[in-house]
Amino acid sequence: MNSRALEVLQAPARRDVELSGAIRELEVVQHPVAHIRARFVAIDAFLSTYSIEEQRLRGNLSEAEGGLVTRREELKDAERALVSATDKERERARMAVGRAERRRSSSRTANSPPTATGSSGKQGRSRPC
């Protein structure tokens, strides 16, 4: 065989070795790329729902703040009634003040943001007054 024919036959073998090395390099970076892609998908999903979730939470906060204002007004009404009441009425008014204070406290507790540690995301139920 002449050297030209030998060169033609060895060229594909050298190319095969080069391509095998490139495949190994790609396999090495494949795992980190898959991890980055998965993080991108998760971040994209979060960002696509962020504004909707923020609006929902702001609505809940407004509703809770409105409830707290109502509870404070109830407490003030009950305290005014207590001041101007007879003995029997005073006892009823004291009970009303107690209920209003409990409701205000439970509204304030429900309005508090969850803590970073130890919070399961579940809110406790308030006792009926």
Describe the protein's topology.
Layout: H1 3-83, H2 87-111
Written description of the protein model:
This protein is mainly α. It has a domain at 72-110. It is 82% helix and 0% strand. The chain has helices spanning 3-83, 87-111. Helix 1 (3-83) packs antiparallel against helix 2. The chain is rod-shaped. The model is unreliable at 116-129 (pLDDT under 50).
Q: What is the compact description of this entry?
A:
With 129 residues, the protein is mainly α. The protein has helices spanning 3-83, 87-111.
Regions with little confidence, pLDDT below 50 for 5+ residues: 116-129
Largest sheet: none
What overall geometry do the principal axes of the alpha carbons give?
Answer: rod-shaped
The helix-and-strand class reads mainly alpha
- Strand portion: under 5%
Helix content percent band: over 70%
SSE string: HH
Q: Provide mean pLDDT, rounded.
A: 83
How many beta strands in the DSSP annotation? 0
Count of helical regions: 2
- Head-to-tail CA distance between termini: 103 Å
Give the C-alpha Rg: 35 Å
Jot down its keywords.
mainly alpha, rod-shaped, 82% helix, 129 residues, disordered C terminus, 2 helices
